[in-house]
Amino acid sequence: MYSFDWGFIWVLIVQLVLAIGIAWIIVQWVKLFSKKKETRPPLDIAKERYAKGEITKEELDEIKRNLE
Protein backbone atom coordinates (compact mmCIF):
# COMPACT_ATOMS: atom_id res chain seq x y z
CA MET A 1 0.00 0.00 0.00
CA TYR A 2 0.96 3.57 -0.49
CA SER A 3 1.36 5.98 2.40
CA PHE A 4 0.01 9.53 2.19
CA ASP A 5 2.84 12.03 1.87
CA TRP A 6 2.16 15.63 2.95
CA GLY A 7 5.34 16.77 1.18
CA PHE A 8 3.67 16.09 -2.15
CA ILE A 9 0.73 18.34 -1.20
CA TRP A 10 3.09 21.18 -0.21
CA VAL A 11 4.92 20.91 -3.52
CA LEU A 12 1.60 21.18 -5.38
CA ILE A 13 0.57 24.20 -3.31
CA VAL A 14 3.90 25.95 -3.93
CA GLN A 15 3.65 25.24 -7.66
CA LEU A 16 0.10 26.58 -7.76
CA VAL A 17 1.09 29.77 -5.92
CA LEU A 18 4.06 30.28 -8.26
CA ALA A 19 1.90 29.72 -11.35
CA ILE A 20 -0.71 32.22 -10.14
CA GLY A 21 2.01 34.73 -9.26
CA ILE A 22 3.67 34.43 -12.66
CA ALA A 23 0.31 34.74 -14.43
CA TRP A 24 -0.51 37.86 -12.37
CA ILE A 25 2.86 39.44 -13.24
CA ILE A 26 2.34 38.75 -16.95
CA VAL A 27 -1.17 40.26 -16.89
CA GLN A 28 0.09 43.39 -15.13
CA TRP A 29 3.00 43.72 -17.58
CA VAL A 30 0.68 43.41 -20.59
CA LYS A 31 -1.70 46.00 -19.11
CA LEU A 32 1.16 48.41 -18.50
CA PHE A 33 2.54 48.26 -22.03
CA SER A 34 -0.76 48.04 -23.90
CA LYS A 35 -2.21 51.31 -22.65
CA LYS A 36 -2.80 53.66 -25.52
CA LYS A 37 -1.73 57.23 -25.13
CA GLU A 38 -4.27 60.03 -25.37
CA THR A 39 -4.00 61.40 -28.92
CA ARG A 40 -7.12 63.52 -29.04
CA PRO A 41 -6.69 67.28 -29.27
CA PRO A 42 -7.05 69.09 -25.92
CA LEU A 43 -9.94 71.21 -27.22
CA ASP A 44 -11.96 68.08 -28.02
CA ILE A 45 -11.35 66.82 -24.50
CA ALA A 46 -12.48 70.17 -23.07
CA LYS A 47 -15.64 70.12 -25.20
CA GLU A 48 -16.41 66.61 -24.02
CA ARG A 49 -15.94 67.66 -20.39
CA TYR A 50 -18.28 70.62 -20.99
CA ALA A 51 -20.88 68.29 -22.52
CA LYS A 52 -20.66 66.04 -19.45
CA GLY A 53 -21.12 69.07 -17.18
CA GLU A 54 -17.68 68.76 -15.61
CA ILE A 55 -16.74 72.35 -16.52
CA THR A 56 -18.73 75.54 -17.07
CA LYS A 57 -19.09 77.57 -20.25
CA GLU A 58 -16.71 80.18 -18.83
CA GLU A 59 -14.09 77.53 -18.12
CA LEU A 60 -14.49 76.17 -21.65
CA ASP A 61 -14.05 79.65 -23.11
CA GLU A 62 -10.93 80.18 -21.00
CA ILE A 63 -9.49 76.87 -22.19
CA LYS A 64 -10.18 77.88 -25.80
CA ARG A 65 -8.39 81.22 -25.28
CA ASN A 66 -5.41 79.50 -23.67
CA LEU A 67 -5.09 76.96 -26.48
CA GLU A 68 -5.28 79.49 -29.33
Question: What's the layout of helices and strands?
Answer:
Elements: H1 6-34, H2 42-52, H3 57-67
How does this structure look, described?
The radius of gyration is 27 Å and the shape is rod-shaped. The chain has two domains: 35 residues; 32 residues, no CATH class. The chain has three helices and no strands. With 68 residues, the protein is mainly alpha-helical. The model has no long low-confidence stretch (mean pLDDT 88). 75% of the residues lie in helices and 0% in strands.
Give the structure's gist in a few sentences:
With 68 residues, the chain is an all-alpha fold.
Task: Summarize this structure as a short list of keywords or feature phrases.
2 domains; 68 residues; single chain; rod-shaped; mainly alpha
Oligomeric description of these chains? single chain
The largest β sheet comes out as: none
Number of strands: 0
Rg computed from alpha carbons, rounded to a whole number of angstroms: 27 Å
Round the mean pLDDT to the nearest integer and report it: 88
